[in-house]
Design brief:
It is a single chain. The chain is built from two helices and twelve strands. By secondary structure, it is mainly β. It has two domains: 5-61; 64-184, no CATH class. The strands form four sheets. A five-stranded antiparallel sheet has the order 11-10-9-8-12. A hairpin with a 2-residue loop joins β5 (41-48) and β6. α1 (144-157) packs across α2. The longest helix has 14 residues, at 144-157. The termini are far apart.
């Protein structure tokens, strides 16, 4: 084939695997997003000039541990900082969001750093929604199911109402996300603008 190469991806089943965003539909190597365990498909049509070729495969989604981040808004204003949280699919094929934050509303006191594990794709905070947050790519752990399980245990063992929450420094929600990664042997680096990490 010669000329300008164009890619057209079709990925599904969307409740199992999907393109990370619609912009990925026309790139050579798209980023995929695992939603729940199972088998999916990824088919591509490649065009160059008058030539067309097709190909595809069947990506499988098992256990996973994904780190997400999203902007922080205070009184409707974007602070320029980000909040992090975990999305996991465990060995029982259950999906959870693990997030943390203040026990209070930070006016006048934030209270304590507490953590939650919420079934589904939306966390304790409605903004912690994997459909609208940004996936931060990290290296997968050696045993992905162990990593997901360990993150669950870390959250369950977290002592709520014991550690004072700090708004723009450690300890805060980003500190929890980082400590959960370290304590669960899940490789993770800090997403951009995450104070307290």
């Amino acid at each position: 084939m010669s000329g300008i190469v164009r890619y057209y991806w079709s990925v599904g089943t969307t409740n199992i695997v999907a393109l990370k965003s619609s912009s990925q539909q026309t790139v050579q190597e798209p980023m995929l997003h695992g939603v729940s365990p199972g088998g999916g498909y990824a088919n591509v049509q490649v065009q160059a000039g008058s030539c067309t070729s097709t190909g595809g495969g069947n990506p499988q989604v098992g256990c996973l541990s994904h780190l997400y981040y999203r902007p922080v808004f205070i009184l409707g204003e974007n602070t320029g900082e980000n909040h992090t949280f975990w999305y996991i699919i465990d060995q029982n094929n259950s999906n959870w969001v693990i997030d943390a934050g203040p026990s209070g509303n930070c006016l006048p006191s934030c209270g304590y750093l507490n953590a939650w594990e919420t079934v589904g794709t939306v966390g304790h905070y409605p903004e912690d929604d994997i459909a609208y947050a940004t996936l931060w790519p990290t290296a997968p752990p050696t045993n992905i199911c162990n990593g997901a399980f360990n993150l669950e245990i870390f959250e369950e063992d977290w002592a709520d109402n014991t550690i004072k929450y700090a708004l723009n420094a450690a300890p805060n929600s980003n500190s929890f996300t980082h400590q959960a990664a370290v304590g669960s042997a899940v490789p993770a680096t800090a997403p951009p603008n995450t104070p307290g990490w």
